[in-house]
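Inputs:
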Amino acid sequence: MSAPQIPNLNTLRRGAGRGRLRGRGGGHEGPGSTSRGQKDRVVQGTDNDASVSRLSAVGLGYLEDSFARVLTPLGQETRRLPIINRGTYVRTTAIDKLVARFLGSTAESDSAWKQKKKQIISLGAGSDTRVFRLLQSDLTPNLVYHEIDFAVNNTAKIKAIRGTPILQRVLGHREDVTISDAGDALHSPIYHIHPIDLRTLAHQSESSANDEPVIRLQETVDTTLPTLILSECCLVYLSPDEAAGVVRYFTKTLFPPSGDTSETLGLVLYEPIRPDDAFGRTMVANLATRGIQLQTLHEYASLEAQRRRLRQQGFDAGQAAADVDFLWERWVNEDEKERVAGLEMLDEMEEWKLLAQHYCVAWGWREGCVRFDGWNDLEGQSSEG
Amino acid sequence: MSDLDRAIAQLRACRLIPEAQVRELCYKARELLIEEGNVVCVDAPVTICGDIHGQFHDLMELFRVGGDVPDTNYLFMGDFVDRGFYSLESFLLLLCLKVRYPDRITLIRGNHESRQITTVYGFYDECIRKYGSANVWRYCCEVFDYLALGALVLGASAELEPSGPSYNDTTQSTMSTTDDRELETEVLNSKGDVTMSTYRPRQGSSLDNGATSPTRDPAPLRTGAPGTGASSSGAGSYSSRTGAVLCVHGGLSPLIDTVDKIRLIDRKQEVPHEGAMCDLLWSDPDEIDGWGLSPRGAGFLFGADIVKQFNYKNDLSLIARAHQLVMEGYKEMFDGGIVTVWSAPNYCYRCGNVAAILELGEDTSSGGTVTRSNGDIGRSNGILTSATEKVPLRSPGRRYRVFEAAAQDTRGMPAKKPVADYFL
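Outputs:
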């Protein structure tokens, strides 16, 4: 039955077939042979991906975000596919919800908790707009926001802030804002941008204790405030040791647990999971051809592994996780689902489920002296779906 | 070598043909398709294929695994375009083959063969990028409007001939048992090795050779409506025969209870947002009772009871459809009453799935007199008994060939575009 005159393209496969496909001569080298600098540039470039996706979702009405346009590089605007837009929507709204609960800005928030000043530290924030959305909102008046990223990503963001009145307005008085000579650091009473390669935090104890930006981070972070750490697709690019080291820097060095005087410390992660099924293997291979290595993916491959990670890293008051498919099904109410489903025809239901089951949000917290119960009734996903 | 053969050769090499030639091709294809009914009758043997989605290199792999046109008789159940990087090359090649070998390849419409969907899912952009204007997109969309909505496969054999020397199931089947059971399904990998077989008891009625008679309807009551109870005049009792196989892209519609009703649709239009034509292209089977709302926002979900009733009423033994990604390439549901065939391996270069095609063999026991035509005149009648003397239909023997994506290195992926989108 087979037609011999048609060449069998599979015989041209190199290596062990499925799973490990490497780009050949396409400008990317395999990840093993890439220098650290090149690899970093690729990871820095992922921020661009995220901001373009956000703008696409905003442009089509999935999300409201008046800062998405000004924080996306000009000329980069493209319409993403409906499943990507929906994924961006679910990821953003789920993390928004966790953040709002942590900040006590929802109607049902406990009043003692609500009144406390809070702090957010966002890792690998890049062009993220969340800081502006929160600082602009009347619901979260008592907030200090820190962002940590590579200097090059900060430079782009700070340049955008300098050139954009609606961003400046959010930061308040001009004289309260200082920007470093290199344009990669920004400090104000409510907002700090730190030019730090997160890996230096992981290796803190050993070497770079006198690293200027790290010192500045330690000076500006208020360790007496309830603090939420955010990592949206950030720690996953580090090696498992470094990723754990970064978290340890916050849980042990900056916020050492000290009985009844310390405050609540929370961590929210957004990461890919399930690398070992057919979709996951293809994802790992495809990203590898772009030079992107998700280094902790196999370490934290399941929801259970993510919860264990949170527990082991000291977030002992509670840990939960859910994949994006679950979050869409259970966290988005029916009216909102109908609204979102009406924005674009989403034909690819099976593909959506596949994609959405390979990303998760995980959250855990350490109890402080004022009781935090804002995350108690958020539904996590118990078993592996 | 004719212009058409040259165009085929060029497209097989994944090189586009000039715009003027596309216009001419689309014009010829339209003339051909306009003659086809909404439900095309196709005689077995036939190889049924699901979604292609512009994955040109995988379409070449499909032809390698399933045999080339015109050696193999193909039925493609739509979704030729969108998502993949080579919708134009894939669709134009299939269209050339249709014009060149009209009786050896059947194309029916998928929900992506639509103006609205192609502007969202990539085909429109691809046309602009590769031809510099929307002209070719417009020509193709005009062809889409003429594609049939379904096909009826007639004369498929109930029993499969076991695949040749590579058949490796001998340890399990002794000589004595193979006589009283027949091969019902077989799954082969792309090398032709059998990876799975299922059997069913042989029916004694196969000895009843006196009943074999030409299946041509001696006096059609109405032309334009064969393949239904309405035009049947009862050609005798066929307890061993297989029912017809209905092929549609999506599935059933609450507005359609007979194949005849599909024939009444005015199909030459853009796919509507609702109604029978929309449902046929958008619906999905699901583990529910009756009908349900589709999460896709178009079409419906339908359960086992709906399929059972529809098959019974229309003398069908199987519905073959595409439309839904299945990781294993094919998926039978509802006691084999419906099957999903998916022919785009590693869909969107991202999903990691394998693909499949479904081969139905020819039933030679009735003399092989079934005629083959895509036109509406003088065609075989698939329905041989009247409603009062129904006997259980046997499902056709089904051979699935499963294949993987063509090697990525050979794709010539556009360098600028990321391989696939992820959340980063």
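Remarks. The first helix of chain B runs from residue 3 to 12. Confidence is low (pLDDT under 50) at residues 166-176, 205-239, 368-380, 414-419 of chain B.
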